[in-house]
Amino acid sequence: LRLRASMGVHREAMAGLFNSLLVLDREGVNRYAAALEAQPRMVQDPKLPKDERIPDRVFELQDELHQRAHELAKLVNSDEAIKTGELASSFASLAKVCVTCHTHYLYPEQ
Question: Could you read off the pLDDT of 52-70 as tens digits, one per residue?
Answer without folding.
Answer: 888 989 999 999 999 999 9
